[in-house]
């Protein structure tokens, strides 16, 4: 499946949600699932890439259910518009990566769910210990804390071989987190936080693979025309 975001300068190609075909990676196929068509959870869904994923998941899978989380649900106008259109298939929850209790609260209200977590904070151009610490807490530990609380809810799909459905956790990273590819410097806190996220995600993927648990991957969407990108330019 190829997902093309509005005004996107590069194409994000992924097989995460190849609806109606096999092999496919789906949110959950457990017998305890309350909705036909699978359930997805998009973290950081109030705008930009996250909001577009929510929109396309709802539009491309007319039986799928989406749980969208963000820091300020009441102010998420894009999500509220989608809620008016897809009332029965979209839930909006409060989740702040900087506050673990909100992650835990969201996890307890979700059963048998598949997690896709895009997240971003605005880019800081100066080195500041407090800013670096805050960014690291959000960018690297936030996604791992989400996995911590969501992991017990994810189920490996049934079946075998290419027809096996499997739950997927996808962390949205960035090429600037690559150490070997760093030729321009700058973006100190952002680069280091993404490098740490890459390593932590790799660790989790290795550990999950031993138990044949949900697949853990990193996605690099390229440059996308969003509010966050506009701030960085």
Automatic annotation (TrEMBL):
SUPFAM superfamilies to which the protein is assigned, alphabetical: NAD(P)-binding Rossmann-fold domains
Coiled coil feature spans: none
GO cellular component assignments: cytoplasm
GO molecular function: oxidoreductase activity
UniProt name for this protein: Uncharacterized protein
């Amino acid at each position: 499946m190829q997902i093309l975001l509005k005004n996107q300068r590069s194409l994000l190609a992924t097989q995460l949600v190849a609806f109606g075909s096999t092999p496919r990676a789906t949110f959950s196929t457990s017998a305890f699932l309350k909705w036909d068509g699978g359930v997805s959870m998009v973290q950081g869904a109030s705008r930009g890439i996250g909001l577009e994923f929510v929109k396309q998941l709802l539009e491309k899978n007319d039986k799928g259910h989406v749980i969208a989380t963000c820091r300020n649900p009441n102010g998420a106008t894009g999500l509220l518009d989608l809620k008016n259109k897809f009332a029965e298939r979209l839930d909006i929850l409060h989740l702040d990566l900087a506050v673990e209790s909100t992650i835990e609260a969201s996890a307890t209200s979700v059963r048998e769910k598949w997690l896709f977590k895009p997240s971003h904070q605005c880019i800081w151009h100066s080195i500041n210990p407090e800013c670096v610490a805050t960014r690291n807490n959000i960018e690297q530990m936030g996604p791992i804390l989400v996995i911590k609380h969501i992991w017990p809810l994810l189920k490996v799909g049934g079946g075998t071989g290419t027809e096996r459905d499997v739950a997927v956790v996808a962390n949205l990273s960035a090429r600037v987190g690559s150490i070997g590819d760093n030729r321009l410097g700058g973006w100190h806190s952002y680069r280091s936080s993404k490098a740490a996220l890459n390593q932590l995600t790799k660790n989790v993927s290795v550990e999950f693979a031993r138990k044949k648990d949900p697949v853990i991957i990193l996605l690099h969407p390229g440059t996308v025309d969003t509010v966050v990108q506009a701030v960085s330019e």
